[in-house]
Design goal:
This protein has 323 residues and is α/β, with parallel strands linked by helices. The strands form 2 sheets. Strands 1, 4, 5, 6, 7, 8, 9, 10, 11, 12, 13 and 14 form a 12-stranded mixed beta sheet that branches. Strands 2-3 form a two-stranded antiparallel ribbon. It folds into 2 domains: 125 residues, no CATH class; 136 residues, Rossmann fold. Strand 7, helix 9 and strand 8 form a beta-alpha-beta unit. It starts with 10 loop residues before the first helix and ends in a 14-residue tail after the last strand. Helix content is 30%, strand content 21%.
Length: 323
């Protein structure tokens, strides 16, 4: 099969590749195949992307979601207690690297143009984070000795920021919400032109805030016009990016659909709130069709917004195979 990120120029290309991927995974991903059987779903009846059932993301906690018998090269783990973590068994790590490199370049250009400063303490404190893997590699690829991880708001980081501003260097400061807030509460910045990117999550360190409130505090504290965001998760190999106002875009090999919260096999029209389904064609060796626990809405131009999470811990209809 052709590598999933190659030569997707339009909707027709995406549809063709997605149907190829579905047929491959419906036959080769055991848990997805069993899920489709329990739905009494006819694989041959799929004629377009809208026909495809999405695997509830919970199965990554209870089953091995793989589509081949190749050796496992990397295991990515979600946050959470042992036994309640998702496991993404990656048999082609080069695919993940290619996906995030291409995705970053599409939205932000050449990685070597940036000094990357990462404030991700809660991720660094645990093993198996796919986000840490990605950022560590991007830091390395930035080829800048000042790029790096910071566990907290250190004098060294402040010095690097001031020097970057003075020398008119491109700056990307990326972090979890609470760490970015801690930074702007202790220092005031004027970083016009810098990219400030939050990856979400107070991680129990601070009171949760709605996006508008969080971004207002960060734009004021950093002295920027917009706050960027990254949308990704352990179970995926691709990311969406928001360059402001919480409106996300996907790379050409990734697409969002919105499902009915009461009927998980039905989709809702653009502009309506529902459960977020993700098609990630880079996830060819796992499952590319995942029903997440996020709530969101999609717009006519293909962009989308994340509005929150399901209140209940289980996605409706996902307990078909969980034992």
């Amino acid at each position: 099969m052709q590598r999933p990120m190659e030569d997707i120029q339009n909707e027709v290309d995406f549809e063709k590749r997605a149907l190829q991927t579905f047929n491959f995974q419906a036959n080769n991903c055991i848990i997805y195949r069993d899920f489709l059987k329990l739905l009494n779903f006819d694989i041959k009846a799929v004629s377009n992307v809208l026909d495809i059932p999405f695997l509830p993301i919970q199965f990554f906690k209870s089953h091995k979601v793989v589509s081949n018998y190749n050796p496992i090269e990397q295991i990515f783990l979600s946050s959470g207690t042992t036994g309640d973590q998702s496991q993404h068994l990656v048999t082609d790590l080069a695919m993940y690297i290619e996906s995030y490199k291409r995705g970053f370049a599409q939205f932000y250009g050449n990685i070597e143009d940036y000094i990357i400063l990462a404030l991700l303490p809660s991720y660094l404190e645990r093993e198996g984070s796919s986000l840490i893997y990605m950022i560590a590699d991007l830091i390395k690829k930035s080829n800048n000795e000042q790029s790096g991880f910071f566990l907290e708001n250190t004098p060294k980081m402040i010095e690097i920021i001031k020097k970057a501003v003075k020398n008119d260097k491109k700056l990307l400061i990326l972090g979890v919400s609470y760490a970015l807030l801690d930074l702007v509460e202790s220092h005031q910045f004027n970083l016009k032109g810098a990219i400030i990117m939050e990856t979400g999550g107070m991680k129990g360190r601070r009171k949760e805030m709605i996006r508008e409130e969080l971004h207002a505090a960060l734009t004021k504290g950093f002295g920027v016009d917009k706050i960027h965001s990254e949308y990704g998760m352990t179970e995926l190999l691709s990311q969406g990016y928001s360059q402001g106002d919480g409106i996300f875009e996907c790379p050409p090999w990734m697409k969002i659909l919105i499902r009915d919260t009461e009927d998980p096999l039905s989709l809702v029209s653009n502009g309506k709130t529902g459960g977020v389904n993700v098609i990630d064609l880079a996830n060819i060796n796992s499952c590319s069709f995942i029903a997440t626990q996020d709530l969101g809405k999609k717009f006519d131009n293909g962009t989308f917004e994340i509005l929150g999470r399901f209140d209940n811990s289980d996605i409706r209809g996902c307990n078909l195979l969980i034992q």
